[in-house]
Amino acid sequence: MKIDHIGIAVKSIEDSLGFYEGVLGVEQAGREVIEDQGVTVVLLPADESRIELLEPLSEDTVVGKFIARRGEGLHHVCYEVDDLTKKLDDLKSRGLRLLDGYPRRGAEGRLVAFVHPSSAGGVLVELVEKRTEGEG
Amino acid sequence: MKIDHIGIAVKSIEDSLGFYEGVLGVEQAGREVIEDQGVTVVLLPADESRIELLEPLSEDTVVGKFIARRGEGLHHVCYEVDDLTKKLDDLKSRGLRLLDGYPRRGAEGRLVAFVHPSSAGGVLVELVEKRTEGEG
After folding, report:
1. Topology of domain A2-129, CATH
2. Which of A94, A115, B37, B114 sits between 20 and 30 A of B125, alpha carbons compared?
3. Residue A70: closest CA among chain B residues belongs to which residue?
């Protein structure tokens, strides 16, 4: 198992970079708007994993509502899997509650799906399919 | 920067292992009681990082109160630093709010310190000193 990234909900990516760049000394990797999920995303390299800062495009988005309800902070963990479709079928057969029954496109155009926190001990879990050779 | 581990607050380590062992296919690394922090800890290997499951020893502990207030879920992120004392001095000089002004012993006997969430964008951040050669 590999942690692809940790998603952190922030009000402002600009303000948050002070901590990650200044204090932890990481460099910003890339910025991307994911309209589908209502967020602007910045990925910060952390050895083999990344920190994903998520800034909501508006208050009326999943991350905007999360911040209104719980404040800024840890939002989700994303694990890498070899074959996402196969993994989702496996999870369905185990009776887990999924937010996405089928893979969809997430950050960096990769295939992702979310598992409901109620099936993962209160943690919002994202699964991402491993990059194939030559990709990314 | 390297993510040493992600700390997840759980009511029961036994119950949570079903998800991590069964669904994610990880194997349990080791179990440790940290009286000082009022938790039982299990570290699950995740490539170069680990998932740390934290089960409170009682309701009247930091993690016990966290679960009562917010439910099970993501609790903290731990980053590895080269020299913890030097890093803490640096953070103090920047005016960051620390929960530990000086390194103390955490899981696996390693030197750790926590940064207050108010100084880290709502995230409880733990810092751990890098293992020296021949250690651990």
Report:
1. 2,3-Dihydroxybiphenyl 1,2-Dioxygenase; domain 1 (3.10.180)
2. A115
3. B70
